[in-house]
Amino acid sequence: MLKDITIGQYIARDSIIHALDARIKIMITTILIIALFTIDTFTGFGFFAAFVLVVVLLSKISVKKVLKGLKPILILVLFTLFIHIFLTKGGEVLWSWRFISIESEGVYTGFFMVSRIFILILFTSLLTLTTSPLQLTDGIEYILSPLKRFGVPASELSMMMTIALRFIPTLLEEADKIMKAQQARGADFESGNLIQRAKSLIPLLVPLFISAFRRADDLALAMESRCYRGGEGRTRLHELEFRYYDFIALIIIIILAVAVSFY
Amino acid sequence: MLIELNEVSHVYQDENNVKALKNINLEISRGEFIGIVGHTGSGKSTLVQLFNGLIIPSSGTVKVNGKNITNEKSNLKETRRHVGLVFQYPEHQLFEETVYQDIAFGPKNLGLKKDEIRERVEEVMGLVGLDYEEFKDRSPFNLSGGQQRKVAIAGVLALKPEVLVLDEPSAGLDPQGRKQLAELLKYLYQELNITVILISHRMEEIAELASRVIVMHQGEIVIDDNPIEVFSREQKLHKLSLDLPQITEILHRLEERGLKVNTNLFSISEASAEIIKALRSH
């Protein structure tokens, strides 16, 4: 059950998309998100979706795996769709019953929004799927580094992100174990009304928090005993490096984004 | 038959699809003390989680007290009452404010009455060697590691299981803690007639306590016999990267060097008497 959560999951493959520099990938994603919001036709979305598909194929990650990432947001998407279908008015009246009516404008906007969310999530999940957490945080640190001047602790922030991402699977595993242990003592996580269910989570959450704090403590000690002293002046084992294809990718994306926006 | 496994296989459903168990057939009867040994990743922990339905096998059937627990989901709670499972590092599951409440969690889930719960908590705290009056109102988080482990084991014992399964219960305990634990298990087995299933890396523990030893390797049961037979197969165990109990290892080495000793002994006193006897007659 808990194993379905794939936030921040990285799948290692030997592909051109994986090889791109993390900073370039973050920039590309940002540019495309902006471009996505300037699109106002379904043809534009079709074009964009085709592009995402090409990137997925190039990344050598199975399409199924990428689509699976959409599962957690399905409720949000359906909610958006229904809100628009029932509440956005205008155009022809397609169906009505007492005070409820569905109008063509609502259906159109509903599907429009849904396509936008789907493409947005698909594309951003590709970023984490193809970039290792370490590279990703290095990239973010690099992009944030101009803000250091204004007192933004860029390297500390990126270290925190690295650690948080690193411990998601560990904590999930731990949660699974604690859940089983409490079930062995007769705990029931699956039945009862909402309040009973919320209450039944206490035997899971308390040990989980305690273990997270214990791990944090251990990690802090381990870092300190290896002389970690914050980001300033730290060098890296793997430096990020721009290569020619990074720039080619960036240029292609900018051309595409401009073309799509003015289409 | 208390626990019966028939052609059980299990594959973990994740990206690695590890085949954790392969065609296991196993029968455990009432009144046995079973030691399970095996290298890390040999499937021991998966195996014992089948006994109370925490893991439903990919194929095959598991019967507890004659009831098939592999398909009917509703009765698992009942099964878990009969088969108590103490996980590795059980003190990591403590969550209540007081020792009393934490131990009472299991009985409360069974729907017992207040005085019955109190009675049970007092009884199991006595069993594991925690003074009721002294400890009942203390926070479990302020206890030492060894005491926390006792509270956690008491929490499972409070379910009054017929079968007690323990996964590496002595890991990380000091010698005294290990000794107390061994004594507790002996008492549960001999005096209270609880069937005990013990997973351990410490062969000394297994040799001293178990009446039957199961050796696992890569998801299969490779040896299932009494301790004397199992630990006489030195070569086979070494091949599975398992050790003999230290005492037995010494006796085997002495025999190799030409001293005529009985190698099927597991306790220090027996072994030293045997060595002295052998040296005298030498």
From TrEMBL, chain A:
Transmembrane parts of this sequence: 70-87, 107-129, 244-262
Cellular compartment(s): Membrane
One cellular component term from this protein's GO annotations in UniProt: plasma membrane
Top-level lineage group: Bacteria
Membrane topology of the entry: Multi-pass membrane protein
Record key words, sorted: Cell membrane, Membrane, Transmembrane, Transmembrane helix
Keyword set includes RNA-binding: no
Stored InterPro entries: ABC/ECF_trnsptr_transmembrane, ECF_transporter_component
Listed name of the protein: Energy-coupling factor transport system permease protein
TrEMBL record, chain B:
Primary location class: membrane
E.C. designation(s): 7.-.-.-
Membrane topology classification: Peripheral membrane protein
Compartment list: Cell membrane
Molecular function (Gene Ontology), one example: ATP binding
Keywords, ordered alphabetically: ATP-binding, Cell membrane, Membrane, Nucleotide-binding, Translocase, Transport
Protein family: Belongs to the ABC transporter superfamily. Energy-coupling factor EcfA family.
Subunit structure: Forms a stable energy-coupling factor (ECF) transporter complex composed of 2 membrane-embedded substrate-binding proteins (S component), 2 ATP-binding proteins (A component) and 2 transmembrane proteins (T component).
Function: ATP-binding (A) component of a common energy-coupling factor (ECF) ABC-transporter complex.
Name assigned to this protein: Energy-coupling factor transporter ATP-binding protein EcfA2
Organism encoding this protein: Halanaerobium saccharolyticum
Phylogenetic placement of the source organism: Bacteria, Bacillati, Bacillota, Clostridia, Halanaerobiales
